[in-house]
Amino acid sequence: MVYEKLWEKVEQVKDVWAKIKEVDATAFKSPVEFVDWFKAAADPVLQFHYEIGSAWATTTDVPGVIAWLRQGVWNEWAAASDVARSINEYRDYIDTEFMTMFAQQIADEGRHLYLRSRILKAFGGSMEGFKPIKEWVELFELPFVCAPKNPKYLQVRLTSTLQVVELTSVYHHRGVHDNLERNRQLYSGPYAKAAEMLRESFREIEDDELFHWSIAERMWEKYARSPEAIRNILECAAEALRVSTEARVRRVELSEKRAI
Fold first, then answer.
1. Which residue segment(s) compose the domain that 90 sits in?
2. Measuring CA to CA, how many Å separate 93 from each of 156, 214, 225?
3. Domain with 108 in it: what CATH number?
4. pLDDT exceeding 90 applies to what percent of the chain?
5. Residue 136 in contact with residue 209, Cβ under 8 Å?
6. What is the DSSP string of 118-174?
7. Residue pLDDT, tens place only, 25-54
8. What is the DSSP letter of 96?
9. Can you state the angle between helices 227-256 and 31-59, rounded to 10 degrees?
10. Overall number of domains in the chain
11. pTM above 0.90, yes or no
12. Which helix (H) or strand (E) holds 92?
């Protein structure tokens, strides 16, 4: 099974987020240098998320797609809910410069929910009886676990959770989009049109996720101006890398087992 090999690879990338969390926060001369360093340091994990997308895309079948999409529909709802809750509960802490960006993200997640639901229906699936995977529940609770631990840096801690997950999603979605056409059992059967809808949706959503990640880049470039701020960012960002990686592999596992 694909998921077994992916879990083996998780063991190989664990040290990446551990090292990110423990890096010397005094080593950066500017916020831009810090942002560039983070993307480079996280790259092995990001490339693994591409691999997860590719491995799933080239081996799944219609029941696997349906199982996978059921979690995906819930994820889009949860992402929109997270951002809305963040700006509602923590509006006094968030720089108003970023409010319109968060509003745009909520709109994007709502559109993604529509896309996922439409494609799920095209594959003959539904959300009946769905229960979210616990790792994904943990992931979408992470902003409200991590950020409030230091109110002074709450807004950068917020963008170091969900927005870092969005960065991993860019690579994951790219992996699916680049490789789904190689899956002949999807493209040669009665669900070929639905398969192409699925592939194109990954390209569209990837563009949005790049924008969502850019919120963190802009926030960090504005506020990552002290070792203390950087340490707060890295504490949450490292955890976001861990939880998103484990959740994504678990989703492949349970889709292969038809357990979503």
1. 2-257
2. 10, 19, 17
3. 1.20.910.10
4. 97
5. no
6. HHHHHTT---TT----HHHHHHHHHHHHHGGG-GGGHHHHHHTTHHHHHHHHHHHHH
7. 999 999 999 999 999 999 999 999 999 999
8. G
9. 0
10. 1
11. yes
12. none
